Amino acid sequence: MAKMAKKSVSAKGNRPVEKPAVGAKAKVEECQVGFRDPFCLKTTELRDDLQVSAAAISDILRKAHGPFVGASSKTGAAKNVAPFAVRQIFSERGFRFPLDSAGTAHRIALQITKGGAAKTTSAHAIGTRMSAFGAKVLLVDSDPQSNLTTVFDLEQYGVEIDEDTPILADLFEKQRGSDEIVVEDLIVPITPNLHLIPSTLQNSNMEVYLQRNGINIANGMARKFASVLKKYDYIIFDCAPALSTTNALISCFSDTIILPVYPDKLCMSGLHQTLGELTRLQEEFSTANAAMNGRIVFSRFDARQMMSVRYLSQLYDEFPDKMYKTYIRTSSALANSIDASKNLFEMGKSGVAGDYHNLVKEIIGLDGLKLRKKAPAGKRKAGKGEGIYA
Fold first, then answer.
1. pLDDT (tens digit, 0 to 9) for every residue of the chain, 390 residues total?
2. What are the φ and ψ backbone dihedral angles of 313, each rounded to 5 degrees?
3. 265-296 in b/e burial notation, b at 16+ Cβ within 10 A?
4. Radius of gyration, CA atoms only, the chain
């Protein structure tokens, strides 16, 4: 179990108990607490995304209900806009977070067989920025190296992760009666709308559990996550750099597999290897998830290096339908943010932060979207997936 030095947890899972617990299977939306303030967009970022003037954004925010998190000590400085307000503002202008055909969370896996390709960095940046847009996000660390868990530095919130912490592998170990682990037991609420399933070295047992217990690759993960699929907009897996049964299970559960690559010959080899594995899974488990889709994001781009330019051009030529338009530039800001235990977007303005911001807009469908003006009260129809968390 996740041990708490400063905040208590429920007797069975990883959740804080500032609110009365409702049992192991308590609904996710009833947990409105988090270990820290939410990740936020700045007023200037929201203004740019809405493509409105400074005067217009001031008017929009003035009409929003309780839109700010924290307070800036500088007059005229950009403020943090609360995620629920961001979601509401975009919803009033016709935007909805895209759910799958069943009206449940979009599932995204970050995979590639080459290590060091920015899977964890991207999972962290994408998840935190989606939550700043108001999305309800569940990040899942499935890698026994637990780098995503480490990046969140849970100890700063008084949370100790050890070998007894409920993790993904525990869902697939055979249990009986009251000792059975359910997915709600694994969830650590980082913020009210960004949750984490942490990892430890014990996740290395996952392969053994899957084989010993005869878990169905096609729908094994879907069954375990069924109770939370309608509680989130996005479920994002940070996967180990391997061709494994665990990754196959996650792939069959995912709508989109994001493959981060960087300008390196071995990484390109890993890309082709991973795409080949996804093709095999689609052919073998064609009924599991017809939407399984591999998408490529190019990272560590440096326009000063011919190798970067050459590999980027090569990928656009070879995979025109799989490449995200946004590529991620090389920057020391990423390493500095991790070293400081801070979110990339809290480290000040940087090119790479802007790149990940634009990538998230592309993933959620905000890039190039022509937003309408706010609809008149009483004339707006609720769309599928709409709903502001408390």
1. 454 443 434 434 665 544 333 233 333 343 457 888 899 999 999 999 998 998 899 889 888 766 787 655 455 678 899 999 999 999 888 888 877 667 889 999 999 988 777 889 999 999 999 999 999 999 999 999 999 999 999 988 888 898 889 999 999 987 655 578 899 999 999 999 999 999 999 999 999 999 898 888 888 999 999 999 999 999 999 999 888 999 999 999 999 999 999 888 898 888 999 989 888 888 887 655 555 688 999 988 888 889 889 999 999 999 999 999 999 998 888 888 877 777 888 887 888 999 999 999 999 998 866 666 665 454 444 333 333 332
2. -65, -40
3. eebbebbeebbebbeebbeebeebbeebbbbb
4. 21
369 burial class (0-12, 13-18, 19+ CB within 10 angstroms)?
middle
Distance CA 132, CA 82 (A): 8
Residues constituting the chain? 390
As a whole number of angstroms, the distance between CA 119 and CA 208 comes to 24
Closest-CA residue to 81 (of 114, 104, 47): 47
Q: What's the CA gap between 246 and 32, in Å, rounded?
A: 31
Dihedral sign (CA 122, 124, 127, 132): negative
- Sign of the CA dihedral running 109, 240, 192, 70: negative
Q: Cβ distance 138 to 29 under 8 Å?
A: no
Q: Which residues contact 180 (CB under 8 A, 6 or more apart)?
A: none
Please tell me whether residue 141 adopts helix, strand or coil conformation: strand
- Amino acid in position 89: I
Please tell us whether the domain made up of 96-364 is placed in CATH 3.30.450.40: no
End-to-end CA gap in the chain: 27
